[in-house]
Structure to design on (74 residues):
């Protein structure tokens, strides 16, 4: 998981994140990592167009996007 956070941070590239919040709700986000801390990660949420902070403990999954933004499948 940390290597994908670093990939996004260093390359300023988006990654997919699936997150479980304190209320038990699961959400999908397309993010670019801005800062990595021990307990949380500061990201720019591409859908909400704003900065967000996520607790590392709530991260269920991280992955490179299956499809690049703006690129169509032929």
């Amino acid at each position: 998981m940390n290597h994908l956070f670093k990939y996004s941070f260093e390359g300023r590239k988006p990654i997919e994140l699936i997150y479980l919040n304190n209320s038990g709700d699961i959400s999908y986000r397309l993010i670019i990592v801005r800062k990595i801390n021990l307990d949380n990660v500061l990201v720019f949420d591409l859908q909400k167009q704003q900065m967000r902070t996520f607790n590392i403990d709530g991260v269920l999954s991280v992955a490179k996007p299956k499809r690049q933004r703006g690129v169509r499948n032929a």
